Lipoprotein (Dyadobacter fermentans), 494 residues
Amino acid sequence: MKNIRKISSLLLLTSALACTDGFEEMNKDPNRAEQATSAQLLTNAQYNFSNNITDEWNNGRFGMYYAQYWSSTYYSGESRYQIRENTNQIMWNTFYTDVLNELQKSQEIEEASQWPGFKNRIAISEIVKAYTYHFLTDIYGGPIPYAEALNAEDVTPAYNTGEEVYAGLLATLDEQVKVLDANEPSYATGDVLYQGDVNAWKRFANSLRLRIALRMIDVKPAEATEAIKKALDPANGGIISTQEQSALFRWLPSPPNNNPMNQSFKVRVDFSMSKPFIDYLKLYSDPRLPVFAEPRRNTNDYVGEVYGQASSSASSNGDPSRVSLPTNYAVGATAPTIWLDLAEVKFMLAEIQARELKVGLTGTAAQYYQEGVAASMRFAGIREENITAYLKKVPYNAAKWKDSIGSQKWIAMYTQGIQGWLERLRLDFKDPITGKAIFALPADGSLDPDVTDVSKRMTYPLVEASLNGAHYRTALEKLGGRNSKGAKNWWDKY
């Protein structure tokens, strides 16, 4: 990423020096700003991030497969853990160049101008940075370029360990919550998520602290508990507590600003509902089933595609008479990309109570569990009487709290493929009532010799070995010495 930026800068400089006298004045567009504003750069970053975690490659063929929400209708390679290296490289580059670098530029503009409210605007960008690094470190198993990643003078940034990244993220969120000041101006335009609402960004930052803390709690319980206490301290601005406070990136009805998965489905149907997901929804007559999935054409029957089967006549090839396809809940033009929502927060509160952390919460684990299920269902448009009936079928089981919370959190995270996969890895949940496995092995086996059930991480892009070889090799030492999808994330203790 650094080399690409250096080369681009060199080409631009060379082009500028080659101009004839006076050409630069002729080449100016009087109707276009000469420099992007910080608001425009924030919009770009939020858009690029949302596109990166929602598109057909990183969500469809990666997250939605690994969480087993979807199966492949044509080519099963990715669902059997054989990645396309070019798409992996694009995902990595997008996070660094098109998200983090845009945010950095936005902050530099604010720091230089220091217009009223600049501290708020810098803090918002810093929170989005933390959210981006959170995805990067978890996707790639821990070690990533972090502390030196955005230094334009350093084309070979060191990799920080996952533990170091998490400590940095929690410190950043702690600091930015203190910086944010609702009495000062903020973004008037450019903030797609919260329209510059400083209090909303405080709630988001605190809710993100909960996610980060719970993800590492099995290996760093003291640090995680301290972060949870800070996130829940009312003096720090609170957490997401209503659906309206959820962080949603809202797409528009028409290209190029419609949901990227919607655009993908206009070309071909590469994804169907997965059999493990459909079967589990059917097991307890989940009223979200018809919201998430289409019945087979001209029937009232919901059928999931076998997960990880090789391309053959057994695959549906996207035929809606053979298999259930996703509804507009996931692939509609305006289906939002969920960054962090009420349902997830409620399940996190349930887990905090299930772990008996004594952080000042007054509700019970069972109460927060029920509120998490209800929040998910209300977001899906389910009627209250149906929510009540469903909760009677899947009561909270304190003795199997990981299974109760994990299974329902997984359902609620449908469309959030990457986070659904990471929670699958962290909680290792089964059905709390029957004790049976929810997930299936790839029907025709894994194509990665290091992976049997599910990938534990994404491999680093191969170009890192040549562009940043010394630091890359140091990072691999933390992962067992090889760039393997079978290497567990540092927080994945069980």
Notes: The chain has a mean pLDDT of 93. The two ends are 34 Å apart (CA to CA). The beta strands are 70-72, 144-145, 159-160, 247-249, 271-273, 337-340.
